[in-house]
Amino acid sequence: MAKTDMTPNGAKVVKIMRRPVRWSLAEIAFWLLAVASVFLLPGQHLILTEIAGLAILALSLDLILGYAGVVSLGQAAMYGVGAYAAGLYAIHVTGEPLSGLLVGAAAGAVIAFATSFLLLRGADLTRLMVTLGVAAVLFEVANKAAWLTGGADGLQGIWIDPILGLFDFDLEGHTGYVYSLTVLFVLFVIARLVVNSPFGYSLKAVRDNPLRASAVGVPVNARLVAVYTLSGAYAGIAGALFTQTQQFISLDVLSFQKSADGLMVLTIGGPGYLYGGMIGALAYKLIQDALSGFTPQYWQFWVGLLLVIFVLVGRDRPRQFVIDVMARLRGGKGGAQ
Amino acid sequence: MSEILTIENLSAGYGRAIALNGVSLKVAQGEAMALLGRNGVGKTTTLNSVMGLTRHMGGRVLLEGRDVTRLTPEARAWAGIGWVPQERGIFRSLTVEENITCVATPGRWTLDAVYGMFPRLRERRGNFGNQLSGGEQQMLSIARALVLNPKILLLDEPTEGLAPIIVEELLGAIRRIVRDEGMAAIIVEQHARKILKITDTAVILDRGTVVWSGTSPALMADAEALATHLGVGHHRVAG
Predict the structure, then answer these.
(1) Residue A82: left (phi > 0), alpha (psi -120 to 50), or beta?
(2) Do B130 and A244 form a contact (C-beta atoms < 8 A)?
(3) Keywords on this record (chain A) (predicted)?
(4) What predicted TM-score, i.e. pTM, was given to this entire model?
(5) pLDDT by residue (tens digit) across B40-61?
(6) What residues of chain A have any CB closer than 8 angstroms to a CB in chain B?
(7) CATH of domain B3-80+150-238
(8) Does the structure's ipTM exceed the value 0.85?
């Protein structure tokens, strides 16, 4: 019987997983600009640190919403738990920041993994309510466990050691920004590898049509649990980064507003290509900063109005613009999508 | 020959509607079976029920003797049932290569092997699912099922809506898969004359039950069965 010529088992798939996805000029320029901001905007490092943290939170949300189609209004659950875990670790174990980040990541991942099974049933509305509910429960737990978290007074007395024993966190936020930007870049690179692997492709298949994906062999539930856990680790790191750069935690880290901020930022930048969270965080924070300076009492009114207009005019435009630019520069398929 | 797939007295449907009523089939290792019948008699429902996509109302589905009736669709796929749905089911936001690799498992059917079977897909490997023609989508759907390295393929009307030249190309590929590669398959097809030349056996469904079963040559020679159940003249089948 004639047989088709075959290569060794799965060799091609492994090759694809290891294949580096080319960086487009637009992507390189984006990160060079980010590095340049360290030197060119020394007076803005405090707000840039906030932007980097918010971008990581939005990146965590992009992994589940942009790639797997899981909507969430409870990303603050993992963010807040990561923040508290890193804070408690700094107070009771060591102020070493890198291990603190890992503690935050682990805490976020554990919460995400434990609650991921609640997301496997139901569709968007169910998931919105479940994630919202989990975050609300954790908020109240943190509020009641004041002996551990400081409750409404916040967790104080956090002291973070110099990074690698060399770089002390300063009041101007220089160290904090370089640190946050580095963490953001590392997490971005990992996310980029993940979404450009067969695992990432299968997430998009699940997002496109879960039932069909299941019937053609994608282990849908396992994929959702895995990506939600990864997303939780990212959110936990964002929370830990907040703790380390602010050296104070309030209950706000578990609030609905924190989850909404993440979703809003991702909506502004556009989900599903990894840069949306960063672009959205930058735009959102700069607009917020400008408006709060211009009209301190009513800035939320203007932010809300702009958001409504933006969504109505076309929230996919920034994403499409970036993808088009990348595709043009690359001469083919665009972006990290 | 040992049996790959056994369907025992299977009843299934959608909601309260019964579409299959006690269907029994057996597909042996290396056997290609044509599943025939007029519109709405339960051909697609049979395949969907094998994949676990309908409401199960009775009977069993066995894969190599293992009862898979209660398994989820993905577990059935991983157990070795490759499904090529009627509407092709291409993931539109994935490229051709991403559509294939997202489900690939180690085995004889690798990316290179399916590109060898469908060279057109290699040419279009970077195109998104929504940028493919109907024939290319069908090839991709078959390729995606193959890289799962299944024990049996379920092909649901693979030539539906395609241009004649593409139909010939696809039938050639299906012939190589079932004849040369020895892949067991159930092929649902409305046009008996196209598929009976490729398959070993044939089953005709009518109103959710099996009304005829036997070898493909026997069906081609059975003018009465063809005329009664399929509305096809003998001369057309032979031609």
Answers:
(1) alpha
(2) no
(3) Cell membrane, Membrane, Transmembrane, Transmembrane helix
(4) 0.85
(5) 899 999 999 999 999 999 999 9
(6) 1-13, 16, 198, 201-202, 204-205, 207-209, 211-220, 332-333
(7) 3.40.50.300
(8) no
